[in-house]
Every structure is written in structure tokens, then in C-alpha cells.
Design brief:
By secondary structure, this protein is α+β, with helices and mostly antiparallel strands. It has one domain. About 30% of the residues lie in helices and about 35% in strands. The chain has four helices and six strands; from the N terminus they run E-E-H-H-H-E-E-E-E-H. The chain has a six-stranded mixed sheet. Strand 4 and strand 5 form a beta hairpin.
């Protein structure tokens, strides 16, 4: 399994990279290209931080007890990248542990290097 060491929202992380492949399937060139395109446009991940904070407040604002998130890492920890098997568009998910849903976590879906949705990992994978 491959990993990528990079900064996410100002903090260093080693992210495991998962490719959507069944047993015996090769990683597609389009999957390699999707990962590389996101790496080259990594600022879109950093720019997604306010959306992650908004997700936390909208879904668990009562638990947070504030109208703002003072430290996103109290609630969200990036853990990996999931690269979809898709030859028509580049889809990479940033998989994160989520304090308020440890079983499902959350994922940020980037389609063609644009944040398109934040939801439970199970809903997006």
C-alpha cells in the first residue's frame, strides 16, 4: 500500500492511499492521473477547511458548544486517500476520522480537483 506524506490544514500527515480495485485488477492510469492531479492542486484540500468546519457545526454544533471551530483537529483527523475507479472524471476522497461518528468517519470528495461533497465515508465509497 502506498502512502503520501503531506500537510493538511497546516499539519503534517502520512495518508494511506487506497485504489478502488478488485482482487486481480490493475490500478488504472486514470486513477494514477487522478491522484497526481490532486497532489499538484493540493491547495484545494487546504481551501476545504472552512467547509469541514461548517460540516462539523451543522451536524454537531450542539456537541461542540460553540458557533465556531477553534481547532478542526479536535474533531477531524485526515487518515487516507481513496482513488475511485473512474475513467471519465478524476475522483479522490480524503478519508478522515470524525469524533462524532467514529464508526463511519467522514470523507471529502474532490471531483476534478474541486470539492464536491462532504459526507460519511460509507455514503461516498
Amino acid at each position: 500500500m502506498q502512502s503520501l506524506t503531506t500537510k493538511v490544514w497546516g499539519r503534517d500527515f502520512s495518508l494511506r492511499v487506497y485504489f478502488d480495485c478488485c482482487t486481480g485488477e490493475e490500478i488504472l492510469q486514470s486513477q494514477k492521473d487522478a491522484l497526481e492531479a490532486l497532489r499538484k492542486s493540493w491547495q484545494v484540500v487546504d481551501e476545504a477547511k472552512p467547509e469541514v468546519e461548517r460540516y462539523c457545526l451543522e451536524n454537531n454544533g450542539r456537541d461542540i458548544g460553540s458557533e465556531t471551530v477553534d481547532n478542526v483537529f479536535k474533531y477531524v483527523i485526515p487518515e487516507g486517500l481513496y482513488v475511485e475507479r473512474n475513467e471519465n472524471k478524476r475522483v479522490v476522497l480524503l478519508l478522515c476520522a470524525y469524533r462524532f461518528d467514529p464508526e463511519h468517519g467522514i470523507a471529502l470528495q474532490f471531483t476534478n480537483e474541486t470539492l464536491t461533497v462532504i459526507d460519511q465515508q460509507d455514503a461516498l465509497i
